[in-house]
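# step 3/5: fold
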Amino acid sequence: MNEFALLLAATLSAGTVLAIAALGLLINERAGIVNLGAEGMMLVAAIAGFATAVHTHNDWLAFAAGAAAGAVMAAAFGLLVIWLNTNQYATGLALSLFGTGFSAFVGIRYTQEKLAERPHFEVPGLADLPFVGPALFRQHPMVYLAVALMLGLAWFLYRSRAGLVLRAVGESPESAHALGYPVRRIRLAAVVAGGALCGVAGAYLSVIYTPLWVEGMTAGKGWIALALTTFATWRPARVLLGAYLFGGVTMLQFHLQGEGVQVASQFLTMLPYLATIVVLVLISRNPAWIRANMPASIGKPFFPGG
């Protein structure tokens, strides 16, 4: 039972990386923009956050640095695709490739660096409860902030006027423009916000979850986060559920290896990505359901006055 509690705790921690990044990408796609550069943004944010933590010994400054790095890269992407009308998919892939190479170059001197011992967090009065204490109430505050972010984003999208405008821009930018809304600026704001969240996820990965810097350390998590938005049919609560599902699959491979299960380690490493493919294949069997939930103008450029 205690091992299961620890596995559940590890699942929540692993899922937090995916959840924060996927919620950021959800904001982008609700505004009609597809950003395939999540992997690159997370890597640059990971080295920015790790370097900041090394020099300042302050995790929250590291998160701020990661958010800033992700936001800057997303702003560059936004200017290219929203104002210069470059292809969203090609520009996103270029951003991912750039982030992978740039982070590897900048991070060379940090590969041997180590952070001070990470602080342990507990929720007073709840952390000592049997099973649920170690499973749920001994997490880093960012784990709980991810849940709060999901709730806040759900309220924003479905209960606030600004969220309604954002969704309108993703559904029909022409109609939103005709009503006087600055479609391009709204899309840019959504892209920057999404990039900042991807940056926070990258910083959490290198500063808290690992904590160290290794070239290419995201290992495809940016792509899984991107797939999660489709898996969740663009709903914040489903994004969180999906993130924990994939986090659980990731942790299961380590648990099985620790238990000495006689399965090739390469196959166990494949599990999270295999699960991603299986889920997307199952979802794609019902394209009408996806179309009913997908923002109508996702991935489509907008030309004001055109």
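# step 4/5: annotate
The longest helix spans residues 2-30.
# step 5/5: archive (pending)
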